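Notes from hallway chat w/ T.B., transcribed later so I don't forget. T.B. wanted the structure written out for a chain they're using in a teaching module, and asked if we could keep both sequence and structure tokens in one place. Agreed to drop them here.
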Amino acid sequence: MAYGVVHQFAGGTREQYEASVGAVHPSDGSLPPGQVLHVAGPSDGGWTIVAVHESKESWERFRDEELMPRMSAGIEGGFTAPPTETAFEVYHQSPS
């Protein structure tokens, strides 16, 4: 079952997003393995990212092997504080 994750970065900016996503996503502009959707944009008081993965296991693998190690090491120009996270099992996903 697909699995969605919403990250809200209080005070986050487009520049911080671009630096952060550039460090954790493939450089060719594709999505990481197992991720099927990635959307992001400014939101009230910061920046919001929504990602949908093929499964909860796919999300956890990306989080544990790619995202957290790079974020923990620090990304120059990236987000400076962890996000508020909301996760959910995807009940319905329309075709793109």
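Follow-up for T.B.: DSSP finds two helices and four strands in the chain. Might be a good example for the class.
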